[in-house]
Structure formats: structure tokens, C-alpha cells
Amino acid sequence: MSNANVGKVFNMTGGNGGGGTLKLETLAITKQPNKTVYKSGESFDPTGMVVTAGYGYGLTSDVTGYTVSPQVLTDGVTEVTITYTEGRITKTASVPVTVKKVLVSIAITANPTKMTYQYLETFDPAGMVVTATYSDESSEEVSGYTHSPDAFSALGQQAVQIQYAYEGVTKTASLTVTVNPIEVAVPVQNGVLTYDGETKTPAWTGYGTGKMTISGETNGVNAGTYSAKFVLDYGYVFPGGQNEATVSWVIDRAVIASPPKQSNVLAANGKPQTPTWDNYDTSKLIIGGERFGTDAKDYTATFTPTPNYKWWDGSTGAKEVIWTITSVIVPIPVQKGSPVYTGAPQTPEWNNFDQENSSVSVTPQTNAGTHTATFTLLKGMWSDGTTGKKTVNWTIGRASLAAVPKQSEVPKYDGNPKTPSWDSNYDSNKMTVSVEPQINAGTGYTATFTPDSNHQWWDGEVGGKTATWSIAKGDQVVTVSPAAVTLNTSARSAKFTVTRKGDGVISAISNSQSVATVSSVNQITGEVTVNSVKDTTGTTTITVKVAEGDNYLAGADKQIQVKAQFVTIYGVEWDWTSSGSTKGKRTDGAAGFGDPNPAVNNGSGSSPFDNLYPWRDMTKVTRTGGVMVKEPKYWFKWTKTGKKLKLQIADGPVEGFHVDPVNMDRGDGLGELDHSYIGRYHCGSNWKSETNQAQMVNITRSIARTNIHNLGTNIWQMDFAQFWYVNMLFLVEFADWNGERIGLGCSASGSRENNGKTDAMKYHTGTTAVNRNSYGFCQYRNIEGWWDNVYDWMDGCYYNANGLNVIKNPNQFSDNANGVLVGKPTSGYPSDFAIPTQSGLEWALYPSESSGSTTTCVPDDWNFNGSGPCLHHGGSYSQDRNRGPFYVYCDGASSSYSSFGCRLQERPPKAA
């Protein structure tokens, strides 16, 4: 509303009341009614509609009291006019609507094709046209109508109601059709009933219980004709329009196949006689005619069927039968016994042969079988009542065969067809044999023997009897080529070929599965593939077997020699039979190597082992425990024969060799390792392996063990296994037990010094001092002080009155007498060693003789005493000459001296 009208009072009541100035100006439908779609004939429904009047100045009012036109909506209406009057002013508005036509009527404008039906038949609307008429006067043919009934259950004129629905309106039309009854045939008897004394009920063709009922004579016993009555149900009719019919049915007479015959033989005796009859049943036949007689002659009797029977020819009258009384009865002869086939002509003997009143004609026969003789009456009649010639069979029996032939010789398979030979029971003049030649070896072949017509088996049978025969398997010949194969890095697999006869299964087994295995055997080509096992060096034998096959016996075993050479073995051997030299002789891959040239006075040096595994890989690395020396895995073997001692080290697995004692599976859960670490230096003041550190001394073995292990889970104090790991490498490299080849093993000043004295050395083999007081520190393969300045406590070993106990598992290190007892060493300078036989401790050598010195056999002292069970190793600043890489000394568990130090080792998991 505009500001000009603010404060004015307006009349909103409509008309001119109130004397106001506002007047109706517009009329609008501001909300459409709820319903805008109608069927023709419905009234307009304003529900929901809002009519709003407008008065200018933006003033409006919802109003009522309007009129609607049209009120009833018919076809063609598209809108409704809303009229509202206020005062003298009338305004209109329109509401759009949709008006739909409605169904007014339906009519059948064309009848269906079928207007006549049978009872229960279903209405068929085909051809019918239904036309619908609507409120808008339009019409159309429609479908989708329904009809009732579907099937006609009443006869005559029947109305069919047709219904059609459109938009909720249903209209009906009617159609009249004719319904006739169903014509069915009169039932007839199905099949033939024959008298047998039992009650009979006929089967009917055309009888249905849902269409008719039956009464009258529905069953009977005696032969004759009966009548049954059929009455139809509603809706059915017989031909001619009748709803009932009488039908005859029959029980036929039983058949008598033949008339009776005289069954006895009568001879005249002056008295009346009557015959006995075959096939005479008084319930079926009535006898008449001549039933008795006295004189020798023929008589005539008659037989008539009773009412339930007839003759085979369908007749029912009497039939005549001749019977006889004779003057002489002659028995019919039969053969007496039976001759057996002999190859000569034979004639039979007879029982009951009346030579006075009959004669015989018979031809001698040779072959077994049935023959005939002819007997002729001379007087009277035969005992069977006949008088003609009699043909009587007689036989010659077959001769007996005692046994079925058996195979006499067994042929051997050679690839050619075979037939068997037979023992003496086979006679081609008495039997035939049916046998198929066979090629393959086997035991289930058969032959069939059949007697000829003059012979039979012992059990009377004349059919074929089966005998089995066989072909033996042939001798096998096995060859292999080549007879030996070699495996190496260039050829980790090798093949050889097995040649054999037939299809016997080839198997090949390695006698040493750790060196080589058989991976495949080609049964067709005979090719056998041999593979190495983890590049293990060694020898083995492949045993080849050829099993018995279908046609050949098993062959003799063949041997294939396999040599696997994947690793290099370096060896050294000492013979102390006649001398006690510390120096040994290099063998295997080290044969011909010169001695190493150690660095002297911090000079340079070299060794033929510098570039060989494992020596070359003993490099310096920094780890949690400080500066460490890597210890790669190697394989070793000690061999002792009398006074000969041999050590071999391999750079790979070799059958009969062992993993080094440091990296072997030590039972601590880490398994076999590829490498471990040892401290380059003696432990410093912080227990680590570091240069320029004062060496940790005045400690017991258990204190050292505890503090070293505190550095890490897998860090331990050096043990007896480390002692032999390093020293075995030293022995093979220098071929000498004397550590003075590198250095004397003492400090320059005769007192303890800090770590790092060999840091300036460029060559890792070590130094040898011209003067024991200069460059006294020694180094072997980057390990400083292996036998100088201070001793290193050794864990993993314990000595008591029983001998030396060795502990493999670092988790079990202690100062107590546990572990595995390997033997009882002697004291002094050992000249000989014992090698333990316990599995996994083949490295833990100990002295078995103590007759050496500082220059013979093993020049380093091994000092054992019962009061000092804990071992240490190396040398000290005391400058003793009997100390060195192999020095072992026992001390008490509580011992701690200024010359007793320690060294750590690390066993890292494989991932480290």
C-alpha cells in the first residue's frame, strides 16, 4: 500500500456499505482447487480453491459467495467460470479443467464365428466384435472384455454375458448360443472271455464312469451270452438320440485240444473189457457208443463236449474214437546197454525183443551217435496199440578223454607271435584246438579244446574246455651312457641316457642326496637328469634300476659316477710320525702356494690368500659394539690318521665338511649364519672395541660376560668357537702352528698399552718384530692383539677334573661345569690333538700329548688345572715366548689381573 493511504479506514465488506471509497477491481484464482480432472457428468468441486478480490492500492481479500458455471461438467468443457459480485460490480475468473468421456453402453456388433457348442465346451469369442459408445457420442471396437460363463453346463439356448469396463464404468451386453449334448458310442466288449470255472467280468470299450452307469448282467461263470444295460448321465447321448442301450457280451466255451485216446493195450481173454482213456475228463466230455467189448477187434466210442466246452475246431457235437482188443501184444524193443566208440563197426543188443512175433533190420555203425533200427510185426500189435513198423533209436557212446591238455613249454617274449606247445593229452585225432597267436608276455592267454564227435571229456561233457597258457618275459639288457657325469658351476645339471628293452620303469637314486639328486627320469627317452644340491662339492653314485615291465624282466642295476666340484678346498697337513716340525705341507687348492709375506716394521706384505674367500672378506666394519671384523662363513674338515693331522677349509659346502664353529647353528634361535663379527680390539673402558682406548683389565670372566652382553642382545664375550674359527684360518694360510711368523705377541715397553697400535698398518696379515720391544703388537686379518699385550677371557668352555666342557649356545655361557665334555687335555706344549666325535663339536680340538716345545709341534702352551676352570687365550706384555695364537690357560672364576682383558663378538640375525 502507498504512503498516501496510511491512516485511512476502508470498507472491506463489499457493496456500498460503510460509505467507503474502495471498489472491487479484480478477481483472481490465487490457489487452484484440489480437483481439476473430471469425468463427464460430475459436478465441479471447489475444495481447496482460493478466490481473491482486488481493490486497488495493493489491497486484496479472499472471498466466498461466488457462483460457478457450469456446475455440471460435460464433454467439451475446458474451464469453469467463477463469478463474484460486490455492490454493483461483478468480476469473473476462470479455472481450467479437464473433462474425460465416460462409457455409456456396449453392443455386440458382430457375432462370434462359433454359435453352437457341445455340453461342457468352453465359449470361444473368436470373430466377435464388441463396440463401446461413450458420453461424447464417440464409439470404437474394444477388446479386454470378459464373458461368463466360460463353459456350458446346461443344454439348449444359453445366454453369454459380455462385460467391458472403461474408467471405472462397466457395461454389459448379452449373446445367445445353442448348447447340444455330447454324442458317445455304445460300449462294446473288449477282448474275449473263456470259461475256466471262475466268475468273469467283461472289459468294455467306450465305457466311462463319468458319462454313464452300468447295470444288468455285469458278470457270469458259465459259457454263454449275457446282457448289460448302460444309462447315460446328463449332457450325453447315444447315436440316434437315446440315453440308454442294452449290450450283449459273451463267455466263450473252453477248448478241448483233441479227443481221448486208448491208453492201455487189451488182449482178448473171453471176458468183457473196457479201455482206459488219455485226455478224458468227465466234467468236459460225455462218453457214448461202444464202451465194452469181448472179441479181438476194433470198437467205436463217442465223446460229446459238456455245455462249457467245445472241440478245437469249434464244433460241439460228438466225435468217434476207435479202440481195440487184440489177439497178441508185442513189446516194443529198447537198446540194452550202449557200446563205446572203438573205431570199428558195432551193432546193439536189445531188451524186450520178441523174435517170434517181430523181426529187426539194423546196419552196423562205427561212429558215436544216435542210429536207428526198424522192427516189423509178424503177429499181433505193439504194446502201444499200433501195428506199423517201429523205428527204435540206439546209440554208440563217445570214448572218454582223460584230461584237458596243458602247456608243455613256455616261450619267451621276442616281439614275434607265439603259440603254445601241448603235453601228451593233446591228440589232434580226438579233439580240435582253437588258439590265437599272441605277442606280449602274459599268463592269461587261453586255448579251447573241443572233442570230436566220437569223444567226450571224462565228466561226460562234449563242449569246449579252456586251458591257459603263457608267454614268459624276455631277458632285459640295460646300458647307460655316459657312465660318469660332472657337475660344476658351468653345468649344475647333467644328463645320461638309459637304454632298455620294453617299458620297464626306470628309477634312479643318488646314494648321497646332499651332493646330487635325480630330478627327472623320462620313461620314454630314458633320459635322466641329475642336479647338484646347493652347489655342494663331493662324489656320489647314481644307481639305475629298470623294473620288470610288461614284456621284459627287471634288468641288472647300473652305476653312474657323479663328481660335483663347485667349491675350492684349501688344505694343510702335518706328519708328526718322525718329526715335530710346526710347519705343515699345503694340499688341495693350496698346493703350490708360497708362504705369506707378512708386513715387517709397518711395511707392506702380501699373501696368496689375500683374494681368496673367506680370508679376503675379513674386513673392518663399525657396529654397535665398535670396530668389528667380519667373519664370513666357511666349511672345514679335520682328518686324523695316526700321527697325521690334516685341516681343510672350503669356500662352499662340501659333503663331509662342517660349517665353521662361529656361524654354525648354535642352538640360540638364529640358525646358521652367513657371517658374524669379532672385536678388532680388546674391549676398551666402555666395553666396546675402539681404538686409542685403555684395555679393560682386572676383570673376572663373568663380569666381562655381563657387561659385554649389556651392549646388545646378540653381543657376547669371545668364546672357544672364536678361538678355533680364527686359528683354523691362520693354520691353512701359514701352514704353521708358530705365531711368530707374524709377531712375538708382546708390547714394546713391557707394560700394558692402549688399543690401536696396528692402525697404521696397511697390510692386514700382521707384523713381525726384529726387536721384541718395537712394533710388538701383532695383527691377524684385521684382528689386533690376537696374542699380545693382554689375555682375552674365553667363554663357552669350562675345565674340571673330568676334562674340557664346551658350550655352543651363547645363551648358556656361564662359569659352571655345563656343556658337552669333549675329552681330558694334557698340560704343556701339545704335540698332538684329539678331535671330538660329538656332532657339532668337530672343531673343539684339545691336546692329547704334551711333548712339544716352543719350536716343535704346537709351540704355544696349554695350561690346565682343576682349580682354574675358566680359560683365557693369547699373550700379555710379560713377553713370554710360550704364548701365541694357540695359547690356552686356566684360571679361577674369581681371577682378575692386570693382564686379563676381554674381547667381544656379535652374532647378528641374518637380516642384520
Protein architecture, described:
There is one protein chain. A five-stranded antiparallel beta sheet has the order 55-54-60-59-61, covered by helices on one side. Strands 57-58-62-77-63 form a five-stranded antiparallel beta sheet. It contains two helices and 77 strands. The protein has eight domains: 3-100, Immunoglobulin-like (Sandwich), CATH 2.60.40.3630; 103-180, Immunoglobulin-like (Sandwich); 182-252; 255-327; 330-397, no CATH class; 400-471; 479-564, Immunoglobulin-like, CATH 2.60.40.1080; 569-604 and 619-906, no CATH class. The longest helix is centred in the last third of the chain and has 15 residues, at 720-734. The protein is mainly β. The radius of gyration is 67 Å and the shape is flat.
List keywords for this structure.
Immunoglobulin-like, flat, 912 residues, disordered N terminus, 2 helices, 77 strands, 39% strand
How much strand content do the residues show? Answer: 35-45%
User: In angstroms, what separates the terminal alpha carbons?
Assistant: 92 Å
Count of separate structural domains: 8
The number of distinct helices, counting runs of at least 4 residues, comes to: 2
Low-confidence stretches: 1-19, 768-775
Q: How does the overall form come out from the CA principal axes?
A: flat
Using only C-alpha atoms, the radius of gyration works out to 67 Å
Strand order of the largest sheet: 55-54-60-59-61
Fraction of residues in helix: under 10%
Number of E strands: 77
Q: Which structural class do you get from the secondary structure elements?
A: mainly beta
Biggest pleated sheet: 5 strands, antiparallel
